[in-house]
C-alpha cells in the first residue's frame, strides 16, 4: 500500500462544533506519505488526537480523503467506483479499537462473522485441472463452481482412468471434504470430460467457515449463538478479528486493537495477531500509542504528530537512535521496570496546538525542547524556549502587565530603555524589572533589550508592533519553513537533520 499526499480535513461550519467554537477546518491528516510493504507490520504511533485513526480509515476509504492518492495492489483506490471499491474491500479489512461499540449488540457472534461472507457472496470456488500427457480436460458442474476461490490452502485430488494417472484436480478449500465432492469422468473422441458436483449448500459452507474462523481466533464454536454483552473484552476482540478474517484479506488496519483490554488479555491478542500473520501472510498497519506493544509486534514504526508523519524507521533503529525531538520525548515516557536504573523523562511544555490553526513551519515547534535559534543571536535553549513562549503569549494577547506589576511590586522608575536601533523609549513601570519577573532565565544584551522594548509596546497597547519587534530578533527557521521527510533509510521531518538548503538567519 502506498499513500501519497494523503489529506483529510473536516469542516466545522455545518456541525454542532461550528456553532459552539466557530467555523474552521480541522486538519486531521495533512499531506501524509506512507508505504506499507507486503508481509510487514508498520506501526503508527502518536498522541491521542494526532490523526492516526483517521489515517487508517482514509487509507481504506472508510473516510473519503480530502486529497491525495492511495495505491493498493496496483489500483488507485480513490478512482474506484462504489462497486469496484466494495469488491476491493475483500482484500483489506479493519480491526477496531473498541470491540463492544464495533459489534452490533443485536447480532450473535455467528451472524456478525457471517455478515461479510454474505455481503461479498462467499465462499466461492475456483476449480482447475492439471492434465499430463497432452490430454484435454473439460470442467463442468454446478453453477457454484464458476466463481473465484476464497479459501487459502490447497488439496489435490488425483484423477485416475484405467490405472493411468492423466491429471490432477486442484481444489483449494478448507471447508470441503472428499465426501462432499462427486467426480465423474468420461472419455470422448476429443478427450476427457470431468464432471464435478458439490453436495453442500452455500449456507452449510458458511457455517463451516464460521466454525473454522472461531477456532482460528481461539473461541469455542459453541459461542456462536452468544451476544456481545455476554462476552469478555478479549473475546469480543477475537470476534472482531474473526470478522476481519472472514473474507480472507491481505491487508488489515489494526486500530489500537488492544488499548481497551487488560494487560494480560493484550498479550494474548498480540500473540494471536502474530500467529495469524505468519499463517496467512497478512500485512498490518498497526495503530497504537503503547510503545512497548509496538516494539514487540512491528517491523517499522512511523511517528505522527498533529496530522504529519515526523519520523519513520525500522523498529530497532528508531528505539535505539530516535532523531526527531518528539520521538525522543515519546520514548522517554516508556516506564523502566528496573527501579535501580535512572531514566530521564523529557517533559513537553504546553498542549498540542489546535488542528484548526496549526503553527506555521514545524508543527512541533511550540513544544520542542530543541527549537533552533537564529544563528545571529547568542542564547541558550532554555532561555530561547522562554522567549518562544513569551512570543506566543504576545500573539494571543494573554499577558496582563498590570497583574504582573502588582504581584512583583514593580516600581514606577521612569527608566529609559535603549532599543536595538539605538532609539530610546520611556518606561512608566520599569520594563527591565518586568523582564526579570516574566523570565526565569537571565536574559542579557540585545536579547534583554528587545524583550523590554516589546513589553513597553504592550504597555502602550501596541501588540502588533511588539510582535514585529520580537519576530525580527527571535524568529526561528522552525517557524518559517515546514521540514520534510527526506528519501533516506531513517528520515526525520526536523530541521536538525538533512533538510534542503534554507535560510537559518
UniProtKB/TrEMBL annotation:
Belongs to the ABC transporter superfamily. The keyword Cell wall biogenesis/degradation does not apply. GO terms for biological process: peptide transport; transmembrane transport. GO terms for molecular function: ATP binding; ATP hydrolysis activity. Residues 11-331 form the ABC transporter domain. This is ATP-binding cassette domain-containing protein. The keyword Ligase does not apply.
